[in-house]
Design goal:
This protein is α/β, with parallel strands linked by helices. Helices cover 46% and strands 15% of the residues. The protein contains seven helices and five strands. It has helices at 14-24, 36-44, 63-72, 90-99, 111-124, 128-135, 154-168; strands spanning 5-10, 28-33, 51-55, 81-85, 103-106. It has a five-stranded parallel sheet with strand order 2-1-3-4-5, with helices on both faces. β4, α4 (90-99) and β5 form a beta-alpha-beta unit. α1 crosses α5 (111-124) and α2 runs parallel beside α3 (63-72). This is DNA-binding response OmpR family regulator. It holds the Pfam family Response_reg.
Amino acid sequence: MTTKHSLLLVDGNPYVSGILVQSLKASFNVTVANTGQEAVRLLMQGNRFDCVLTELQLPQLSGLELTRFIRTSRLLKHIPIVVLSNASDSDTRINCLEQGVDSYIAKPFNPLEVKAKLTALLRRAPSPVEETQHAFVPARPQLESKPLWQPKSRILSMILKRYTVLQRM
């Protein structure tokens, strides 16, 4: 049995949140935040989310400000972010993508399209386990700073001496 991905849904409209929760709960563990500040609080408390689905116009903290917070955090920057918004102009979509959003879905939306988009993003996203393995690789201490050309063995020493003798001829 596969485990469900965890999704942070950030939308101040309870009607939209309800539709998304109903359509996504079979595939995702959905946590709903009504404001951007509530989403930040959930993330800061150490809750792990595989993806964030957010509205742009949120009370207190916008979806783009939430995106900037996630992208500047060393621990959270790997999380895919999808924006759902009423803004359908090209400039808004481009701005979102430039700010670090992975995908943009215009409202009104098809809940099945949202599910398909989230599934596709998570299929390509690195898992948090892979991220932590790369993030915490200990540095190899340098014991001594020796020149690279210094012979390491007797054979190598003989080869290098012969090379210098041949060069002089």
